[in-house]
From TrEMBL, chain A:
Pfam families: AAA_31. Belongs to the ParA family. MinD subfamily. Interacts with MinC and FtsZ. InterPro entries: AAA_dom, MinD, MinD_FleN, P-loop_NTPase, ParA/MinD_ATPase. It comes from the Bacteria. Residues 2-150 form the AAA domain. ATPase required for the correct placement of the division site. Cell division inhibitors MinC and MinD act in concert to form an inhibitor capable of blocking formation of the polar Z ring septums. Rapidly oscillates between the poles of the cell to destabilize FtsZ filaments that have formed before they mature into polar Z rings. This is Septum site-determining protein MinD.
Amino acid sequence: MAKIIVMTSGKGGVGKTTSSAAFAVGLAARGHRTAVVDFDVGLRNLDIVMGCERRVVYDIVNVINGEATLRQALIRDKRMENLSILAASQTKDKEALELDAVGKLLDELRKDFDYIVCDSPAGIEKGALAALYYADEAIIVTNPEVSSVRDSDRILGILSSKSHRAEKGEDPVKEHLLVTRYDPARVEQGEMLSVEDVQEILAIKLLGVIPESQAVLRASNIGQPVILDQGTTPAQAYEDAVGRFLGETIEQRFVKAARRSFFARLMGRPA
Amino acid sequence: MAADPQKSADTSEGKPSRLTPMPLRGASYTMMVLRLAELAQPDFFGRLQVKIAQAPSFFEGAPMLLDLDGTAGGSAEDFEELKRRLRELRLALVGVQGGDERQHEAAMGVGLAIFPSWRASNKTTRAVDPANQRVRQEAPPEPRKPLLIDRPVRSGMQIYAEGTDLVVTAPVSAGAELLADGSIHVYAPLRGRALAGVSGDTSARIFCRRLAAELLSIAGHHRVSEEIAEAVQGRSVQVRLQGDNLRIETID
Ligand SMILES: Nc1ncnc2c1ncn2[C@@H]1O[C@H](COP(=O)(O)OP(=O)(O)O)[C@@H](O)[C@H]1O
Ligand SMILES: [Mg+2]
């Protein structure tokens, strides 16, 4: 049974697209047929991070409007034959992402893929709702700062009340916490929340911690998902997270023990 | 108004429509109550302004009730003037409670609603007829079950336990709101707002495993996080009302 995974956060610029690309590649590398879908209509950039922007002919809105078939719109990754990308459009209207139409599109993808990774736009409006609505599992991408944690909390509330699973009274969407852009040194300085703080506030299972690294920007500039830049810390961290997602037991790396921070007190933790 | 809203909704052709019910729904709100008796105190509005400045977003545009208990005067002009002064502080006076018929006339004259006074009804239930009490003992009423919530209450969510207690066994996030006509129990960190006794029950209490609340309120007497003593932050506490004062005591 195919699984739909949404990469979501509420807040923008936290690393959803970076993580979507990394997870899609990681799952495909382990032999799973994987599709990664960009729901960020109007601000597409998954195709750039995946390095296939020049091969985009049709996009998700074309498929939903019936102007192209899914087969025509899916772009086969050049590095891995079991990985495909469905791009978002740069110009079109995000109002096209009607839940019924998105449901049909995902059902069609379910036939050919094991995992469908949905890269959500920021916010809690139509596009973000469309991306998370049909999810079986949600990866909550969170930066170690108060506003990002708050937005993630909001998204968790939406997942537990407005998703298809919630509305149909089915098992809840499985929630995973992915803390990204983590800088242990700044945590020690009390300038950022620690992983423990974030996890304690959101009260969901920790999937992984991705360290802040120049390698991420470098990777996106050359259109190669950072997980493929072997030996770098984000690549290792994403590999670990994908492994844990698939049920492997892998110890957390890149998290140094942190003192209780200034932010923790702000968020109301005991001193 | 007809009891059955479906029957009272007529179409423009004069044919009764069975399909569209009247778009009227009941809803419950928490409201702040201002006691008219307190207005007499020196620099009332100045002190109110200070209070508002402590939690501006909480007060912004908030509806308010005027409690007329223990007072007798007040003309339509007085109520109009009070409405205006509260509006300047971005508070909306929507009605009065308590008071006598003359005051009600005057209040209604300037568009204020008359709210039933819970205090009056409280008094009547306390004066128990012994005969009645015996009847009650013979057929004890079915206890109202509390509303039980087992999943985290996230930012932006609101839960209201109408006519009963609220029990939450998972964390309550900052930006979430718990409301109950009865007491509130949180067996986890409480970081959001908790308002117990929202229909006026002054005996309602709030219990939580770890206090980090943005706001605590019992029967409209509230305290925002800055007004909560450092010594009880992060502790297991019980919150109850003593006179007009919220008492927060540790229980661990
Ligand atoms: N671990 C990281 N270290 C350094 N920069 C990162 C990291 N993750 C993401 N970024 C950078 O943050 C920005 C936003 O990332 P992106 O994945 O596009 O976020 P989103 O999709 O949530 O808006 C990009 O410039 C990206 O290169
Ligand atoms: Mg993005």
